[in-house]
Write a structure and sequence with these properties.
Layout lengths: L18 H4 L6 H17 L11 H13 L5 H20 L8 E3 L3 H8 L6 H7 L1 E3 L5 E4 L5 H30 L6 H10 L4 H27 L1
Antiparallel strand pairs: 1-3, 2-3
Helix pairs in contact: 2-7, 4-7, 6-7, 7-9
Length: 225
């Protein structure tokens, strides 16, 4: 996802490892504790690029697609969608024989109002849990054995995605309060490339936006001559 800010890369402040500690997340303590312990272990075994926030490509894909394809995208709505996925994954983990979770109807109230209304392509995260979409697109089914580690990966990523959306909302609100024009794509692209906390992101993006506005104004006056 290209942006005017893509060529600016910085690494400082709060990154993916500190996102959870800086946000007001209301997930169950046992799930969050497992997330932090497992994330530390996975990071040691499989080093990732510093700015990579998610364990699964599917999560990154869903957030990118939602920003790019949804006309009514907002970080608040996306946060609600990721929270619903996290809650669903946690419930699936807590059920020893989750018969009621074997089939997920895509026309159900839960899926339409909590998932489809807030995220684009979210079926990828359910598929990462082990679900398979039927050809008629009306149901996803959980066949065969359940692999808890796959479900935990999705639950963990959904927490991080929810926190990322909340931080994007903070950046958007701060820049808007400064009467600077910005869109969700620009914020996502900048945060994807720069490991900065909210305050640093706001300061840097504000400087870049003001610089661009100044350059555009100069170019406009030059054309009038």
């Amino acid at each position: 996802m290209e942006s005017v800010y893509d060529h600016h890369y910085q690494q400082d402040g709060v990154g993916s490892d500190e996102v959870i500690g800086n946000m007001y997340i209301t997930e169950p303590p046992d799930v969050l504790a497992k997330f932090l312990a497992e994330k530390e272990s996975m990071d040691q075994m499989h080093p990732r690029r510093p700015n990579q926030k998610f364990q699964l490509f599917a999560t990154e894909q869903v957030l990118q697609s939602s920003i790019a394809k949804m006309d009514n995208f907002s970080a608040d709505k996306a946060s609600t969608g990721f929270e619903a996925i996290n809650r669903y994954a946690n419930n699936l983990l807590r059920q020893p024989c989750p018969r009621e979770y074997k089939v997920l109807k895509t026309h159900s109230g839960f899926y339409q109002h909590q998932i489809v209304a807030n995220l684009a392509g979210a079926e990828a995260m359910f598929e990462a849990m082990g679900y398979r979409m039927l050809p008629d697109q009306t149901k996803m089914v959980l066949d065969g054995l359940i692999f808890p580690h796959r479900i935990r990966d999705v639950a963990r990523d959904a927490i991080v995605a929810k926190a990322e959306c909340q931080m994007m909302k903070m950046v958007f609100d701060r820049l808007t309060d400064m009467e600077l024009t910005v869109n969700w794509s620009d914020i996502y692209s900048y945060r994807e490339l720069n490991r900065l906390n909210v305050e640093q992101t706001v300061q840097n993006m504000a400087m870049l936006i003001q610089e661009k506005q100044h350059n555009d104004l100069q170019a406009y006056h030059f054309e009038l001559k």
